[in-house]
Amino acid sequence: MSLPDFDATYRGTPLVDGAATVPWNIGVPQPPIAALIDGGRVAGPVLDAGCGVGVTTIELARRGVEAVGIDRSATAIAQAREAAAAAGVDAAFEVADISAFTRHDGRFATVVDCTLFHSLPVELRPGYVASIARAARPGAALFVLAFDVSAPFTPEMSPNCVTADELATAVEGAWAVESVVDSTIHVLELPLAAEPPRDEQGRLVMPAHLLTAHRRPS
Q1: Is 148 helix (H, G, I), strand (E, B) or coil?
Q2: What is the DSSP annotation of 37-80?
């Protein structure tokens, strides 16, 4: 399925009429990722894969956790750097194609993928999984938050949503899957095929999966 021009989205072009400019940017880490951070499960150094405007990277840096955010959108990375400077935190950001990423071999203790996986073209998934495995140290944790196939997107804007089994199968190999649990992704306004629930802030609550895995020894 064709995916949007994310750099254009970060420059201010809505995905479709009636959508918030960057619907997935809720200004704070997604609640399931925030719960992992609060629970002490995200150890540094951290690779924030597909970091967007760097909300999760900056939150980790604010807590004293070494983190590197990577995104292929130069516009998003520029905005992330500006936000980190405004917050007064030491967070690193790089423009790179995470599906063919070759730097930082064996560096990271945790890889966080918050809504990137379903934004990749399906054919890039193997390269992405291999790239983050290369960047991770043995035993590193992997957390992936991705939309479930039941998310009520319209055909015009649907990302590459996954079942729990599809997500687990996609990362198996270098990664040992520990669990895939039902979860949620909270988004700003979107025209959808059906109205999902809303959270206390009025954000749309969409069905998702949260995968937990660890890097196998090389």
Answers
A1: strand
A2: HHTT--PSSEEEET-TT-HHHHHHHHTT--EEEEES-HHHHHHH
- Contact criterion met (CB below 8 Å) for 143 and 112: yes
Kindly report the length of the chain: 218
Q: Percentage of the chain surpassing pLDDT 90?
A: 79
| Domain extent for 2 | 1-28+57-96
The model carries a pTM of 0.94
Question: How many domains, the chain?
Answer: 1
Specify if 195 maps to a domain. Answer: no
Average pLDDT score over the chain: 93
Run of H or E residues at 208: strand 204-215
Is 126 within the bounds of a domain? no
CA distance 146 to 163: 9
Instruction: Tell me, yes or no, whether 21 lies in a domain.
Output: yes
Does any domain span residue 193?
no
Q: What is the pLDDT of residues 92-142, one digit of tens each?
A: 999 999 898 888 999 999 999 999 999 999 999 999 999 999 999 999 999
In terms of C-beta distances under 8 Å and separation of at least 24 residues, what long-range contacts does 158-161 make, across chains too? 158/1, 159/1, 159/3, 159/118, 159/119, 160/1, 160/3, 160/118, 160/119, 160/120, 160/121, 160/122, 161/118
